[in-house]
Amino acid sequence: MNKREFKRALVSATMCNVQHDGWPCGTCFFTLPGKITNKDWQSVLLFRGDYKKEDLDNLPKNPQKAIEKIYNICKNMSKLLLREVRGDKKEGKG
φ, ψ for residue 60 (rounded to 5)? Predict the structure, then answer.
């Protein structure tokens, strides 16, 4: 996945784009559902290019896996919101 696609999904899910270049802030990032941790946030900081790997002290063993987890959470949120807007009641509808 590319940076632009990830950023778009993250901004859409958090409804925040206040940091440089339109990225969400940490406060809004931590409103995502699921088990979101500081390791996930540091993975985002690495992915978006804010820091080098050696400057982060709490990265998971596989930061790319954390990015994929966050992306999937964001995409699932978008699907749920779309169902809600459409008024779909059942999971499989729409």
Answer: -70, 170
| Cα-based distances in Å from 80 to 3, 24, 86, 89 | 23, 20, 10, 10
Question: Model confidence over 46-88: pLDDT tens digits?
Answer: 999 999 999 999 999 999 999 999 999 999 987 776 666 677 6
Handedness of CA 12, 15, 18, 19 (dihedral sign): negative
pTM: 0.83
Please give the C-alpha separations between residue 45 and each of 17, 42, 48, 57, in angstroms, as whole numbers.
14, 5, 5, 12
